[in-house]
TrEMBL record, chains A, B, C, D:
EC number(s) per entry: 4.2.3.5
Protein name per the record: Chorismate synthase
Underlying gene: aroC
High-level lineage: Bacteria, Pseudomonadati, Pseudomonadota, Alphaproteobacteria, Rhodobacterales
Keyword Amino-acid biosynthesis appears in the UniProt entry: yes
Keyword Flavoprotein: yes
A GO cellular component entry from the record: cytosol
Cross-referenced Gene3D superfamilies: Chorismate synthase AroC
List of residues binding FMN: R125, S126, S127, N241, A242, G285, K300, P301, T302, S303, S304, R326
Keywords tagged on the record: Amino-acid biosynthesis, Aromatic amino acid biosynthesis, FAD, Flavoprotein, FMN, Lyase, NADP
Reaction catalyzed: 5-O-(1-carboxyvinyl)-3-phosphoshikimate = chorismate + phosphate
Enzyme kind, highest EC tier: lyase
Quaternary data: Homotetramer.
Family: Belongs to the chorismate synthase family.
One Gene Ontology biological process: aromatic amino acid family biosynthetic process
Amino acid sequence: MSFNTFGHIFRVTTWGESHGPALGATVDGCPPGVALDESVIQPWLDRRKPGQSRYTTQRREADTVEILSGVYEGRTTGTPIQLMIRNTDQRSKDYSDIEATFRPGHADITYFQKYGLRDPRGGGRSSARETAARVAAGGVARAVLGDLVPGLEVQGYMVQMGPHGIDRARFDAAQIDRNPFWVPDAQAATDWAEYLDSLRKSGNSVGAVIEVVARNVPPGLGAPIYAKLDTDLAAAMMSINAVKGVEIGEGMGAAALTGVENADEIRMGAQGPVYGSNHAGGILGGISTGQEVVVRFAVKPTSSILMPRGSITRSGEATEVVTKGRHDPCVGIRAVPVGEAMMACVLLDHLLLHRAQCGAGPRGHIG
Amino acid sequence: MSFNTFGHIFRVTTWGESHGPALGATVDGCPPGVALDESVIQPWLDRRKPGQSRYTTQRREADTVEILSGVYEGRTTGTPIQLMIRNTDQRSKDYSDIEATFRPGHADITYFQKYGLRDPRGGGRSSARETAARVAAGGVARAVLGDLVPGLEVQGYMVQMGPHGIDRARFDAAQIDRNPFWVPDAQAATDWAEYLDSLRKSGNSVGAVIEVVARNVPPGLGAPIYAKLDTDLAAAMMSINAVKGVEIGEGMGAAALTGVENADEIRMGAQGPVYGSNHAGGILGGISTGQEVVVRFAVKPTSSILMPRGSITRSGEATEVVTKGRHDPCVGIRAVPVGEAMMACVLLDHLLLHRAQCGAGPRGHIG
Amino acid sequence: MSFNTFGHIFRVTTWGESHGPALGATVDGCPPGVALDESVIQPWLDRRKPGQSRYTTQRREADTVEILSGVYEGRTTGTPIQLMIRNTDQRSKDYSDIEATFRPGHADITYFQKYGLRDPRGGGRSSARETAARVAAGGVARAVLGDLVPGLEVQGYMVQMGPHGIDRARFDAAQIDRNPFWVPDAQAATDWAEYLDSLRKSGNSVGAVIEVVARNVPPGLGAPIYAKLDTDLAAAMMSINAVKGVEIGEGMGAAALTGVENADEIRMGAQGPVYGSNHAGGILGGISTGQEVVVRFAVKPTSSILMPRGSITRSGEATEVVTKGRHDPCVGIRAVPVGEAMMACVLLDHLLLHRAQCGAGPRGHIG
Amino acid sequence: MSFNTFGHIFRVTTWGESHGPALGATVDGCPPGVALDESVIQPWLDRRKPGQSRYTTQRREADTVEILSGVYEGRTTGTPIQLMIRNTDQRSKDYSDIEATFRPGHADITYFQKYGLRDPRGGGRSSARETAARVAAGGVARAVLGDLVPGLEVQGYMVQMGPHGIDRARFDAAQIDRNPFWVPDAQAATDWAEYLDSLRKSGNSVGAVIEVVARNVPPGLGAPIYAKLDTDLAAAMMSINAVKGVEIGEGMGAAALTGVENADEIRMGAQGPVYGSNHAGGILGGISTGQEVVVRFAVKPTSSILMPRGSITRSGEATEVVTKGRHDPCVGIRAVPVGEAMMACVLLDHLLLHRAQCGAGPRGHIG
């Protein structure tokens, strides 16, 4: 509803710029009594942290989260949780030349047009650093989900880098944590390393597609129209920097299917309905079916590249822009934990909304 | 914020079911003094109306809009505008057999699981009829936009039906209103007619991709993070029934591009910055650039088909489902005016948000 | 969040003007499965209906509610409920002279200054007729509360008319429905009838204080800061036309008390904590205690009077205004059912919010 | 909409507890380009700071505000402003005995019933320390208002302490800053000092009434029904700790007036309409008239007193509670700057809302 808040009931407001003293997330509406301290959140931030391989920016940030409120003696109190992450490697330098030009493909021109000024230090609010705050909030959401829905899991991985997709036949979830790309395909990990090394050396960058899956989501989360579970997932993913497309289940590919192909057949299983396929991505009519919830999103290549591109200055003169300094050759890599965090926040929000309107658990029993 | 409302300031709440007495939209936050009566809205509804060709459902609805409030002597008063459309062809019949089974790919199973009951008459709230209310609200948004931003245009068209995409080289906007598919390619119109006839006769259905473009959008609409213009467009399109994917500009294809390819170069034009390309779809960092805003979304094939699919009954017994009666072989056709309506509503909402935070017009001057 | 909506989860948006074709309320977020039809709502509207005694406007409105959506076979479906009430006695007449002047104490001058126009027919949106929509929505809230919290009761009554307060020593709830003023004091009913007759004949009007009490409210409803139960009650009551003050428990009188006097002592009862007094009005720190929730609000005298008052025309010329036609000598009378409706809506909203954040029932057990 | 947020567009979310490491406010939706740094906000915090006289708690807090985001080179950027205030005098001690009992008139019992736990350190979230965050946010709102509406002023003062009201005939605004009670009546200041000394020594406390006035508010702010300016003011004031009543203009006293007395007569002045009186408190139909906006609220006496009151323990046993340590004999004193801050935030929010819906300035011209 507001400019920097998402969520209906479990509401997260992120704040902070790339090069200010700190950034963070104000988390409101968290259920009380959930075990929480920094150690529960920090591991998720560590996954997103830059500088862990040669494929992400060499900026060195500890990304240490501090809980400033909302927790007493290791339990959430039900009041707002303030999560703060200090910026420690913001490197003071002269931004005057950057301030006078606009990078093609970057938000600095639109920020200037909208606000009449911008914070040029590392991109200010448009920096990928903002996503650290999302990951911290996602850590809170995961802690609560773990409490409310035992077995619920959220996992993200990369399924495409530049033009190179994974081979679904080789899908191996065990590989995800074993390579710098979070790719579930050992062969792709090797191939992509070579590809990205070459791009990185040339000063170029490339896009990616991330898939995030949630398992053991109870049926019944979501709502028919504007608070559809897929509506909120689409908004959550599209709100991440550099995302240009979002898909649920078959996604854009659903257009090419016929009704016969697309209809996931249903049969009765031991614990309820079982589906023969999951073209729907676990959501029908905006409401979860109990199948895996499957979301994909495309991240464009970062506009901060070492190769020159034509642009203009604030006074309208032609210029060429080359972005020196640290950058991510494939910013999609760090988007994997961010996508997971958004999925966790949206699922928790809808779990709470469902409790509000319908009480605990699904209401209609089948079988 | 709510289950059936979208928009931050220009807020639209739709209500009503497929087979109830009426449906409509409550439009709140509309600027005052804008010329408005039914004749301004009706033409947009007429475009969406079913039964205009053999390619849409044969249900006959006049879709006549009535303005019940918020307008005095032909001008909006600034108070809520109630738009009501009566259902006139809802055909009373016995729904008891439908009520006991679940259609594969349809929301009736999740509605039942969530709410413990459902309105089986024509799909109830999940029916595509709900989109009539959106188109009516979009008519109000267009009237206000016309007042506030002369020259702003919103146009939708179909770019893919099933596996068949248009040939962009043949793109001819003049064709859009000349065929039942709103396709800007005369050859595709002919080919698709043949394809869809064949599908329709077999009782099958098919998906589609719609593109919606807005021209002469001022730069500066949107906001950095969770009220990004693309976030709200993604949510708006994903909230339409049967939509499974949303793209801005290059969309999912952005993943395959390098930074050099993706960066839209900028030069100075007579009235401001001019871009050499529009991979960004008119939005950078969540804020409009002044280029065309380009959104695409995929509509899955309707699940109401005449070919049998395996399913279960409420008591868990195996069954086969065939959906008799009127249906849309390509429900994506009617989604074209709906996508336009959502675009108009989102743009107006962001125009008002921009006025609120930044005053009139863009603030940063280039050149 | 919006201009014409109240509630966080149980959200009511009212629409319509005094002299348009209809007015109503869009109720979103209602729990599913609750028994509801027009007969459940109509009795509450009948209580508020004008023209039932010589002390309310002689406008004749049936105030018949129609449910247009959200109910199937006598049960709420969980989707938006549209409640429509047709205006049947709006009397067409020439409003040109009214349109050019401003009534002292009336919203017509501020509507004009804000919007540049106004709907002069019966006051348009500022008319007390808008409250019919609130009462209808309150009828839905009561039906749901009855389902979720057996024994919860909401009752309003008048405790002051003009300078004449009731004698609390004579308080007799059985009297409330036996006089046209909803006053729980038989003697006051007699005295006030005489007083109001005299005022009415002179063409004057008078203010009133209404008290609304809710019994058997479970402890734990509300939240610490900006969604405090008393915050939302204050907003709900102050949003009613003509209300100028709101009190919880001791209200403004709390200022005169010392801490010793004000602290409601606690002892242990059979079913939980019992309080020796209720200065707090059933709310501590924004959260219900389980005692009676007590709210009072003051309604100013209607500005539509037959006695002349100095004013100006739209062109700034001095004039005298006398409001001819039907009016309420004490509009506070009809505010009694409206206050009850607002209390019911706020309590239900907070009950749902509590379920969302904390699950069912109070969490901390005492004893 | 959320638990700890207020405002529609200028949105303030406060966070933090009395004895945690810090507390603060996340301010979202602030217009860009406004001059702002800590020195602009700090003076307002200094006014509210405890320990400035013997009549407020002896807790020593510097209440130094730090701006962590949203400001670049001394100007707001339009992105979220994080305001942090460290707690420096939170005194570690053993809370085990407090944790097991409930103070009569205090939120600790309802927090426990709602959440199943509470933060007993200084009252946790229910502490008056939370209001420091409001004052900081109010400082931002004042800076923006100063930029947008030159001449707009907000001023609060105390008009009643315990049973002792001021004499309006002696009203002297110049006195407000010259005494520890912010009272505009030199005689009252002397009398109250004596009264409060006596109360303080006996370990008792007392309530107060605060009046807040805004001058040079443009006409046209507000909206007809649920976003009425008075609705939002009522909510804002009632959300302050310990407030039990809110009045606009005549407030509860409006009930005693007749329509003739209450109707503020209008005549034409040099710059627009001029009113002969201000019973309305500057608001008609929810919209500002251009007169002074006048709000009053009652603060109950703090429940933390040295005199014993009967209560129970968590296990339900009878006990007596005496609250040792630092406390405010009249917490209403510190509520004066808080009421001003809330007024500033609400006015700015409505100014932005008005710009959104109606553009700049009032639309209807009189004269």
